[in-house]
Amino acid sequence: QVQLVESGGGLVQAGGSLRLSCAASGSIFSINAMGWYRQVPGKQRELVADIISGARTNYADSVKGRFTISRDNAKNTVYLQMNSLKPEDTATYYCYAEVLNTARARTISWGQGTQVTVSS
Asked: What is the largest CA-CA distance in the chain?
């Protein structure tokens, strides 16, 4: 099994910054991708950003230029630096990891979610 532990959410004023962290542990052989989705009640979960094979990054148009995703391969940890936050960034943020486990099976794991609230 693979476990993801998130941290870094909270309450911030518009224009402020937060940094989310997500550490993966467990039966990991390799990690193909890690990233962040977010969800607000009544809406579908949407991709915020992810990083593929430790290098290629993807961002939602709504966060380009404000959010930066990075990964520490040695720590199996992904970070999301969020700057210039807007009230519309308010959501529960979920970390995910696409992992090749020690049995060489490809699995996708999710974190428990961390709340980000941006006040106007």
From this structure: 48
**What's the sign of the alpha-carbon dihedral 118, 52, 1, 45?**
positive
* DSSP helix/strand/coil, 73: helix
Of 65, 66, 71, which is closest to residue 15 (Cα–Cα)?
A: 66
Q: How many CB atoms lie within 10 A of CB 59?
A: 17
Q: Which of 103, 111, 109, 107 is closest to 29 using CA atoms?
A: 103
Residue (of 80, 74, 116, 118) closest to 96 by Cα position: 80
**β pairing state of 10-13 and 114-119:** parallel
Over the stretch 65-104, which tens digit does the pLDDT of each residue have? Answer: 999 999 999 999 999 999 999 999 999 999 999 999 999 9
